[in-house]
């Protein structure tokens, strides 16, 4: 028998309020991959933030728990389900490219809403009411994809980290504002359910960064906001802050853009 702690009980009540009448489809579905090796506690913190939502939209939270031994599933699965999450447990995600984007797909297939909001388990959402209402309003107005600014938290100190963040944000600004390339990232975007599933089934989405360009290639409408009220923070807890790490990041970043560029060029044959 699963016994919930007082904190779990509070979260259960919050999720029930978000969901509203279970007989009616929710206005939006929030899908979050959960890496069982590092995010089993993080997801509870994020869910608590989301449960502070005070808008009028009904929401369901779907967790795709992955990366665990098939014969030893996390004990937290029973707790999550009793709290009120919809939970999909997959020991290992089969993928081509990033695991994260492939891990989102089972949850999106399960979703009961056409409006899909995607976050990562280690994110922080300071203003869930403003963010969720903005996403729903943009998708209601006809946007096929919407996203907002993502910043970092839990960063180590040091000049090399500041340099890395400058390069990261500048390159994203240049791609978005100068080149007109949408810079979606997995920790924060909203998309129409059918569109996401269609693009993935066609083999167009190996990386989250490809979502924006692929939606644009199909003539989809895209909304972006850099409003401070809509910022989502992603964790920088794995950064060491060394110069070696910075140089490795630069090499990886160049290779990353080359890979997604090659994938995108190959994809033109599908357009």
Summarize the structure in short:
With 271 residues, this protein is α/β, with parallel strands linked by helices. It has 9 helices and 9 strands. The protein has helices at residues 6-19, 42-50, 76-83, 99-110, 128-140, 159-178, 193-201, 211-217, 243-267; strands at 28-35, 59-66, 86-90, 115-119, 145-148, 150-153, 188-192, 222-225, 232-235.
Helix-strand sequence: HEHEHEHEHEEHEHHEEH
Strand order of the largest sheet: 3-2-1-4-7-5-8
- How would a textbook summarize the main sheet? 7 strands, mixed
Going by CATH, what is the homologous superfamily? Answer: Spore Coat Polysaccharide Biosynthesis Protein SpsA, Chain A
- Structural class based on helices, strands and sheet pairing: alpha/beta
Question: Any low-confidence stretches, pLDDT <50, length ≥5?
Answer: none
Structural domain tally: 1
End-to-end C-alpha gap? 53 Å
Number of DSSP helices?
9
CATH architecture: Alpha-Beta Complex
Identify the overall geometry. Answer: globular
CATH topology: Spore Coat Polysaccharide Biosynthesis Protein SpsA, Chain A
Q: What value does the Rg take, in angstroms?
A: 18 Å
Let me know the average pLDDT. Answer: 86
Helix content: 40-55%
CATH class: Alpha Beta
